[in-house]
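Treating backbone geometry as a discrete language has practical consequences that deserve illustration. In the encoding step, the backbone of a single protein was reduced to a row of integers, each denoting a local shape. The amino acid sequence and the backbone structure tokens for this protein are reproduced below.
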Amino acid sequence: MFDIIRYADSDCAAWNDFVAQSKQGTFLFDRRYMGYHRDRFVDYSLLFYLKGKLYAILPANLVGDTLWSHQGLTYGGLITNGHATAADVCSLFEELNAYLHCRGIHRVVYKPMPWIYQLLPAEEDLYAIFNRCHAQLMVRNVSSTIVQDRALKWRRIRQFGANKAEKEGICVVQDDRAYADFWQVLTDNLQHTYHTRPVHTLAEINRLHDAFPDNIKLYVARLDEKVIGGTLLYVTPQVVHAQYISATPEGKHLHAIDAIYRKVLTEDYRDCRYFDFGISNEDRGRYLNEGLIYQKEGFGGRAVCYDWYEWNVE
């Protein structure tokens, strides 16, 4: 029924065109975005053709005998358009398993797109991996999301913080020239708090911003011209996602993040459909950072799960 083709660079235009008209397309699936870390992953993305026409695509990478969808992306899963049906997608996953089995790939880890990003209902894949692949839940992370036209009232501590920051003279601006300053704040904070580094290097995020200037936006809080906090936003058709949030010790004391999100949520992105703060978990969902999620819930965010599933190819 389906012709399954492994992605090659010659498929770039067809891939990007399909993403642009799909039910789940965001710039993260554009090959210009996926290409920034191509040296870190063995790409094993797949294209599914039905009667000669591109029906679906699957961003994926290979590690040993395991197919991931996709380790380098926040979310992944099967990308389809409005023509996809539940029955066809069930058949697609049956044929995918046969295709992988013939190539010695014995396991799949699948990271479906959270529903808030779907332009139309698009959970045919979730039914198919349950019904045909007998997938099991592997990871469940919890994010905090605001429905902007039904936004909850901020907790008093967040309102107090934004007011305090304003009184202290903190200025919040959207500034695409401040990446180096913010990246230093972010790197220092992650190293001190979690003994880790940002997923993206400064050079990588600069390249991505150059490629997607309308989708990647940086907001910073300044005190006396010094950057003391910031957030990097990923802007997609109906979700604005906080990819990074960070502040210096001084910025935390002066509530710089509260000031930033007053501008972001009540001014610049008050008309977006969903605002997503990102997950507050470690250890693949087993640990909930209650302090972090308390801050996000203080702005009115409530739970949306980012799940991973796995199954053995038979």
